[in-house]
Amino acid sequence: MIITDFTPPAGMELVYQRPESLVDVQTHYCPGCTHGVAHRLLAEAIDELDLRERSILVAPVGCSVFAYRYFEVDSCVAAHGRAPAMATGIKRVQPENIVITYQGDGDLASIGIAEIIHAAARGENITTIFINNAIYGMTGGQMAPTTLPGQKTTSSPCGRDVESTGFPLRVCEMLAQLDGAAYIVRRSLHDVKNIRKAKKAIVTALKAQVNGLGFGMVELLSSCPTNWGMSPQQALSWIETNMIPYYSLGEYKVIDAVNALD
Amino acid sequence: MAKEMIKGNEAIAEAAVRVGLEAYFGYPITPQTELLEHLSGRMVELGRVFVQAESEVAVVNMVYGAACAGARVMTSSSSPGFSLMQEGLSYIAGSELPCVVVDVMRGGPGLGNILPSQGDYFQVTRSAGHGDFRPIVLAPASVQEAIDFTVLAFELADKYRHIVIVALDGQVGQMMEPAELPAMGEVARERPDWALTGAKGRPPNVVLSVYLEGEREEAYNLKVQAKLKEIKSAEQRWLEFATEDARLLVIGYGTAGRIAYSAVQAARERGIRVGLLRPQTLWPFPEDRISSLADRMDGCLVIEMNAGQMLEDVRLAVGGQIPVSFYGRMGGIVPMPDEILDAITHECKRLAIHESIERSC
Lengths: 262, 361
Description:
Strand order of the largest sheet of chain B: 3-2-4-5-7-6-13
Helix content of chain B: 40-55%
CATH superfamily of chain A: Thiamin diphosphate (ThDP)-binding fold, Pyr/PP domains
CATH superfamily of the largest domain in chain B: Thiamin diphosphate (ThDP)-binding fold, Pyr/PP domains
Strand content of chain A: 15-25%
Number of helices of chain B: 14
Shape of chain B: globular
Distance between the termini of chain A: 29 Å
CATH architecture of chain A: 3-Layer(aba) Sandwich
Number of domains of chain B: 2
Number of helices of chain A: 10
Oligomer: heterodimer
Largest sheet of chain A: 7 strands, mixed
Shape of chain A: globular
Strand order of the largest sheet of chain A: 2-1-3-4-6-5-7
Distance between the termini of chain B: 46 Å
Largest interface: A-B, 35 and 39 residues
Largest sheet of chain B: 7 strands, mixed
Number of domains of chain A: 1
CATH class of chain A: Alpha Beta
Structural class of chain A: alpha/beta
CATH architecture of the largest domain in chain B: 3-Layer(aba) Sandwich
CATH class of the largest domain in chain B: Alpha Beta
Radius of gyration of chain B: 21 Å
């Protein structure tokens, strides 16, 4: 597919363009939101591995419910939290397809925690992109299962009180315990260096699925300037200063077969 | 093919296999577990998909996924598990996907018990989930009908891109009877053009149940309602016995309908002018036939294994033309033919159907 009609002048090379797997439309995401970055990384990874015509995207309920509008791949929208179950149904009947769930923290870590744990435990050969921005975005900024202790939200106006609300879930650490998980990694989207590392992790996760190695998940620490009440720049800094200390970046589970891919 | 002794639940499972079931997702719950157990062996043996999921919530969403991909897919459960599936069924209905769901009804509400019941009638016929839709509901009264309706369920699901529920009480699921299974068939590997298979050489397919703009959501709903109207006019199914000269019409489905048949036969032997109508589709309800029969009856007696749920549909169909009364048992109790015969006799006296009562004495 032709991505752009732009032809670089003689002697110049075209080095950056919209990935083939992204649709050329304006998104509904707020200014400064990192969903756009995550979408682009996933689309680039799909393109690089030449998976666009094999991919099926399962969108969640949450801000990324409209992800199906932005990816040039077959897609569907799951019920809240059920994307891993829906992806299981698709992958089991069509193992030749590359099945990807894209889920936020409320979707994956709260209402859908059972589905993600059991998909990982079964070693479902699917890939999950987990956007953790520590808040419910779509409904206007309520406390999420990943909201940090003391963090103010519209449903924890005095700051999250762990005495009454319990503690945030560290999903990578939980899923890494499961034998069915092949590749469990946490990355961040707060600066260029980390964005590059996130991209690499997504590529590895998709490669793992192509090779039938089991369940893969890439958690991406993301910003929500609108609901955090910050500027985009402040929000990126807040990821670094507040989220990363609680959600350590790193590879939580990489089975040997995944290591052997590179 | 020859008849063989087979249990209702296993008969449904095997019938589904033989008409090309590609994927089954389930969770154990009595009194439907034999269905899941049968398929756990058969599907794997045939290289087809079987998954025992972590919950009925996951099950129905796996069904949703497989249906998106265009596969012939089925699940089964019993009342409490069926309740958990309502979320996913609404999404499946909202996406106009075909699938078959078997509900082997047990005593309720709550955890209830594992005895036969028809207490899910409202649940299965009214919508089986949030929003405006009604699944097609088939109600077998024997093992043979359980087989035949399973085959029919897949045909109707594909024809209308719609949910078809095979709703049977635990008795039909648990009993063994001689019955004939369909011939063995293969899985259809061809996918419908709307299915998610990967956007190779075509624009991407999207399956969803979300329309943000009111006008689009209403347009979608109008389309579904038009389809339901078509189903309503084409798919009402029922059986009748001795209705030609009857003055009292007995109506019952599933096991209650089958026992009512024994009672109506006994009443006929006593000269009571009573007939039976046994709905085979609970939705669409055979309202047209009941309405026309009501024109020449003195009364109607509804028999159910619940507190009177189909009773409301009968009253709607009859439209106040004749009195409609009810006899039912709850809690997993199956009525005996004598109880129903007593109810028939009582009703004939109450309605002063003298001629027949005199002859019966």
